[in-house]
UniProtKB/TrEMBL annotation:
Organism per entry: Riccia fluitans
Name of the protein in its database record: Ubiquinol oxidase
Biological classification of the source: Eukaryota, Viridiplantae, Streptophyta, Embryophyta, Marchantiophyta
Major location (coarse): mitochondrion
Protein family according to the UniProt entry: Belongs to the alternative oxidase family.
EC numbers on record: 1.10.3.11
Length: 386
């Protein structure tokens, strides 16, 4: 069977009707098979429309039946290779054609969903600079909202939204220190001092890499504490007093510190390996620590944040002496902390140090609550207290 000699759009419409009639309208196919073949029909139609279907495929009169298992197997391999056969007078030919339909730039959202939306087809004719623009799948009805910055430009970050940004309080007392009162406080205090020794030996005055390593550790306690309180709330059918959100907020804030310093200090392969090993050991150790003695665990984090304040103060001294270049602040830091556009690395270190001071207060406060024999949910959590 030859295609009618007519305009291209009529020929495409003819192919679409043929394929849809063969594979979707056929009564011989079960419902599950018709679902599996619907993407095939759409692909073939699109291939004809783009002029990309192989010659052997374009000249077949009828497309023979192939099991849905073949389609699923080819989908698992990331492409779609279909054996095609031509029918003559209702009889199948003796050989399979070796032609394949290659489908570039098509994402498999679902067997029953359209493989190429109208928006994507419109973008096919756009310049190469616009080809890689993200096209959101609408199959599940989840369409991310578009946010704008204050100047009207698009919000560039998916890891945080405009309402999650803030201006840090730089007036916080940086010299505040909790004096150890009992053996548990002393255990937490000297444990932090012991952990500082290998850090000093390894990083010395490379404060950019030191900050990066510090943040990979500092982001763990808030996540562990929030997770433990979340599970406790589920087990005991009780509210958390906002402490789950406060601790997870702390963990997210520490992670944003890391994302910022990743732009300043590019870690070497051995530093990345050290981060992986340190995180694996510290997460499990702190998890057991919090499980057995949550009050001491919070005191430990309070002292850890005091050491962080000290480290960032030394970082600032090196910047002021000119030993570390005061480069422009990363764009992510400017948007996250609402810094001026001409902010520098020194401004970033100042706001990060203020965040660490706030985390110090939160964890010492949590430890004091438990010291009084209370549970955290009995006192309101300092949500938003970065």
């Amino acid at each position: 069977m030859e295609f009618p000699e007519s305009r291209a759009d009529e020929r495409i419409a003819y192919v679409k009707r043929l394929v849809l009639q063969m594979f979707i309208g056929s009564k011989e196919l079960e419902k599950s098979d018709r679902r599996s073949w619907r993407p095939v029909a759409q692909i073939v139609s699109w291939q004809f429309g783009q002029g990309r279907a192989p010659y052997a495929v374009r000249n077949v009169g009828t497309i023979g039946f192939v099991s849905a298992r073949v389609v699923d197997a080819e989908l698992a391999k990331g492409g779609l290779g279909l054996p095609w056969t031509a029918f003559t007078g209702g009889r199948a030919s003796s050989a399979w054609s070796q032609s394949f339909v290659n489908v570039p730039h098509i994402r498999w959202a679902s067997n029953s969903s359209a493989l190429r939306s109208d928006d994507e087809e419109k973008q096919a004719g756009k310049p190469k600079s616009e080809e890689n623009e993200l096209v959101h799948s609408k199959y599940w009805g989840v369409v991310p909202k578009t946010h704008l910055k204050e100047d009207g430009s698009p919000w560039p970050w998916n890891c945080f939204r405009p309402w999650e940004t803030y201006t840090p309080d730089l007036t916080i007392d940086l010299k505040k220190h909790h004096v150890p009162e009992n053996w548990e406080d002393k255990l937490a205090f000297w444990s932090v001092k012991a952990l500082r020794l290998p850090t000093d030996l390894f990083f010395r005055k490379r404060y950019g890499c030191r900050a990066m390593m510090l943040e990979t550790v500092a982001g763990v306690p808030g996540m562990v504490g929030g997770m433990m309180l979340h599970l406790r709330s589920l087990r005991r059918f009780e509210h958390s007093g906002g402490w789950i959100k406060a601790l997870l907020e702390e963990a997210e804030n520490e992670r944003m510190h890391l994302m910022t310093f990743m732009e300043v200090a590019k870690p070497n392969w051995y530093e990345r390996a050290l981060v992986v090993m340190t995180q694996g050991v510290f997460f499990n150790a702190y998890f057991l620590f919090y499980l057995l003695a949550p009050r001491v665990a919070h005191r430990f984090v309070g002292y850890l944040e005091e050491e962080a304040i000290y480290s960032y103060t030394k970082f600032l001294e090196e910047l002021d002496k000119g030993k570390i270049e005061n480069v422009p602040a990363p764009a992510i830091a400017i948007d996250y902390w609402r810094l001026p556009k001409n902010a520098t690395l020194r401004d970033v270190v100042l706001v990060v140090r203020a965040d660490e001071a706030h985390h110090r207060d939160v964890n010492h406060y949590a430890s004091d609550i438990r010291k009084e024999g209370k549970q955290l949910h009995e006192e309101p959590a300092p949500v938003g207290y970065h």
